[in-house]
Hints:
The chain is of the alpha+beta class and 208 residues long. It contains three helices and nine strands; from the N terminus they run H-E-E-E-E-E-H-E-E-E-E-H.
Amino acid sequence: MGIFTRDDFLDLLAEIAQHLPGRWELVPFPLDYNWGGRLVNHEGQFEGEIIVFSAGYVPLGSSCEKMEIRGELPKNEKGESPYIGYGKKMPAIDVSTSKTGIQIAKDIERRFLPAYTELFKEAVKTVRSQNAYYSKRDAMALQIAQIVKVDEDRISDGKVDFYRSPYHVFNETLAEADVSDDDVKLTLRLSYRDTLDVLKYLTSRDRG
């Protein structure tokens, strides 16, 4: 029997994909010496699940006997995966490359997918909640930017920099709005007279 090559490794991953529930696409790692790839699920209740197969660094002309199988969680619009919780670990298993694709697929279904799928479901809910928060926050920040006539590119993570506002009342060295949920932290450096005007306006609206 010849040496187990990287092409053999990728063929094994393709065979595994055929025996897992769903419709999985194989995306090999780009570097020849870093054996591995991702299977991405494009079908079913948990579309978007990603299983990562890695044998690590394999010197040219060498082979591998084992590979690690682990999962990836979905990312929010900022490209961040959610925190899975204190004391929790991403599930991972090691399998022998001497097994057939159908044998490894059965190992994955039995030893890996139940724990990974549970974490994936929780992560999807978290990501949806985070994206809804970011969408609302950014819409509020945009409204503020439009009022002070600041370009949208001056908004970053819910913060609106007033530096480019054409209104001279905003001091160029310190003026911003930081939007968080339904609250806004407004930082201004004003003249004494402008400060009095702002405070008078705010106190006039006090219905307490």
